[in-house]
Design goal:
By secondary structure, the protein is an alpha/beta fold. It contains 17 helices and twelve strands. Helix 9 links the parallel strand 4 and strand 5.
Length: about 475
């Protein structure tokens, strides 16, 4: 674009500035609302419904691959980045924007300021785009990043195989994420970011989140938190200083299980040792304009609306399912056929205290049922069966109501054996390091009555 925009381009820029000013005011108004209200409405207002969408009460699906411009001036202004645009669905789409607004508001709940969000076709596509954007070399020195070893199996494969084995980008695994000296020993001047998943899938590992965040910032690099299992209903890492929060929106956020989605929510600005000013100032905008555009991984508008429909009841579901999971964990902890139970809500869990420091049901103090802060520990748990691998498989095969599925976060309760499913490709040595034995069964608790789930588990464990 020429250094002097035409009069027509300037007209569209002025029009966009007015629109952005209205949007900014609506953002400020939304930041004063409660979590449940934000989950229901996001940033979709009556004004937008009337002015843009023929009064549609629900956010419409824009089922179009591209955007029509009024003339060449508007196209030039849009493609030059002078005005908001979605242009092409691989770059953006209005329906995706509604989901992004909602997630940015929920994840930054309780914080002032601006935050961005970019959604993807899956959590793995999100992780790839986010981490690749930060893994930029400066000179010939080899680069690295630091990550907790207790993470989802797909994330492990992407880091260990796709990045380290195939591309020579070193991942430095933290075995004990509660040990700050171990985190510190892995960082050098070529480290690009720190990465942690909490609670982890499937072992429910946890750590004192604020400490590695502070350590990352001491070294001028960002901290990325995968908070899929907790969701913003229980944990918002941005509140504790994280720069980027990743979600597999596929999971409990989209509990109906109609498709996959991923999202990253960013602080503005993030801490980074990269020289790219847009990456630092507005990471999610950079993803939209460059990484997302060039690498794809775009979310379908239909799935964006489906995810929004589920998210509207997020806090209520997380609360109810967490209570069911607690009841089931206590039953399993007393069962004579169970070796051990991993659930952060159990008082004798070694990480119960640190989890209780961070996992709080959002707005419980404003809920008439509670009237005070309340800990909740999520819908996911895992347990080991006495008798080892074969005994665990027999128990697993005898489940009737609980479905044998590799997914999690569904409205229906489901179970899997991670060592033969989600973490199979990780290999025995890496699974041992991440505390994923062959006799571990992962249980994702859904909306059924917990007594029926307990009865199913009791039958399966009895043989």
């Amino acid at each position: 674009m020429s250094s002097q925009p035409s009069e027509g381009v300037r007209k569209y820029v002025a029009e966009a500035e007015k629109m952005l000013a209205v949007r900014r005011q609506e953002w400020l108004v939304a930041k004063k609302l409660r979590f449940d209200t934000l989950a229901v409405h996001g940033l979709y207002t009556a004004r937008e419904a009337i002015e843009k969408n023929q009064g549609a009460i629900i956010e419409p699906i824009y089922a179009s691959s591209g955007q029509v411009y009024r003339d060449s001036d508007e196209m030039e202004a849009a493609q030059a980045g002078l005005i908001p645009t979605w242009a092409y669905v691989r770059i953006h789409n209005p329906t995706l924007g509604y989901l992004e607004d909602t997630l940015a508001l929920l994840e930054s709940y309780g914080l002032d300021g601006d935050f961005g969000c970019t959604v993807y076709s899956s959590g793995m596509a999100c992780i790839e785009n986010v981490t690749d954007t930060l893994l930029v070399k400066k000179g010939n020195d080899p680069i690295n990043f630091v990550a907790t070893c207790q993470i989802y199996g797909g994330s492990f494969q992407q880091f260990n195989v796709r990045k380290m084995q195939e591309r020579g980008i070193e991942v430095r695994w933290v075995i004990n994420s509660m040990n700050m000296d171990e985190w510190k020993s892995k960082i050098d001047r070529n480290t690009r970011f720190l990465y942690g998943e909490l609670p982890s899938n499937p072992g429910l590992a946890f750590f004192d989140l604020a400490k590695p965040i502070a350590l990352a910032h001491e070294h001028g690099i960002p901290f990325i938190a995968d908070s899929t299992i907790a969701t913003p209903a229980l944990l918002r890492p941005l509140v504790h200083g994280a720069d980027l929060v990743i979600h597999s929106v596929t999971k409990i956020m989209s509990a109906s299980g109609t498709g996959t989605a991923g999202a990253v929510i960013c602080r503005k600005p993030i801490v980074t040792n990269l020289g790219n000013e847009l990456v630092r100032a507005d990471f999610c905008r950079y993803l939209h304009e460059f990484t997302h555009r060039d690498q794809g991984g775009c979310l379908h508008p239909t799935q964006a609306l489906s995810s929004m429909s589920d998210i509207r009841t997020l806090r209520l579901r997380v609360d109810a399912w967490s209570q069911s999971a607690m009841k089931i964990a206590r039953f399993l902890a007393k069962h004579p056929s169970v070796e051990a139970v991993n659930y952060l809500g159990l008082e004798d869990h070694p990480l119960h205290a640190v989890a209780s420091k961070y996992l709080w049901l959002v707005d419980a103090e404003h809920d008439d049922r509670y009237g005070k802060p309340v800990n909740r520990y999520g819908h996911l748990l895992s347990f080991r069966v006495k008798g080892g691998r074969e005994a665990a498989r027999k128990v697993f095969d005898r489940l009737q109501r609980i479905m044998r599925v590799t997914d999690l976060g569904r409205v229906k309760s489901i179970a899997t054996i991670p060592a033969i499913s989600t973490h199979l490709q990780q290999g025995e040595e890496s699974r041992k390091r991440a505390s994923i034995p062959q006799d571990l069964i992962r249980l994702s608790v859904g909306a059924e009555h917990p007594d029926d789930l307990i009865a199913d588990l009791d039958r399966a464990l009895a043989g």
